[in-house]
Design brief:
- The chain is an alpha/beta fold.
- The chain has a single domain, classed as CoaB-like (Rossmann fold, 3-Layer(aba) Sandwich).
- It is built from 5 helices and 12 strands.
- An 8-stranded mixed β-sheet has the order 5-4-1-6-9-10-11-12, with helices on both faces. The protein has a two-stranded antiparallel ribbon with strand order 2-3. The protein has a two-stranded antiparallel ribbon with strand order 7-8.
- α4 links the parallel β9 and β10.
- It is globular.
- 38% of the residues are buried.
- The structure holds ligand PMT.
- Ligand PMT binds next to α1, α3 and β9.
Amino acid sequence: HHRNDLSGETVLITAGGTREALDPVRFLGNRSSGKMGYALAEAAVRRGARVILVSAPTALRPPAGVELVPVITTEEMRREVLNRTDQASIVIKAAAVADYRPKQQAEQKMKRVGPLSLELEPTEDILAEVVSHRHPGQLIIGFAAETENAVAHGRDKLLRKGADAIVLNDVSREGIGFDSDRNAVTFLTPHRALDLPEMAKRDIADRILEEVLGLRRPQQVV
Ligand code: PMT
């Protein structure tokens, strides 16, 4: 029933968890499976969009019809995303991006020699950079994974990062969020907070795309 409502759109989606190397065999990572981003990519293709999927490592098979751009680190994701945002009419950042990376990378496998402290440095905020290069009419949607005060933190991220909407994931809830096949989210815009109840990620993906398209319609004043 959504057939082709995204035709003519180029949707750039990020997915998966970026990895930051400590040494040739170890990395700092996170629990993102990529399922949410891949579900969005599949749903967007099905609705007629051209889809560019910039993906950190996952165990998933890319949906048929997407243009897959594999990356590993936050810096690679940043480069590949910024190289392509000009082409995108909609950007959806479902990836779980590392906020910190080791300041130094060992060239050889590190040995175990007593206590070890790691020095970390912040990564670039890709979402904020995409917003700062926004072109007219481009929609930019972030995700936010929160473990406490989800709506307050989500709202703060929405305003601070300047995205059109934030898809808020309360990842403290069991059975949804990271790695699950199901999710429940709050679609947050400056004007409203819409709760999408627990359902399959593929269905949540379609609901999110409907809300994203709704941003193109004039906002109702309440
Ligand atoms: O992959 P799954 O297993 O299916 O799980 C889905 C998910 C929980 C990973 C996903 O739905 C989700 O919530 N993704 C966002 C996770 C995250 O990194 O949230 P954040 O609150 O740390 O970041 C907020 C936003 O800024 C995100 O859109 C993120 O892509 C972006 N960001 C963050 C840091 C950074 N350096 N650059 C960014 O662009």
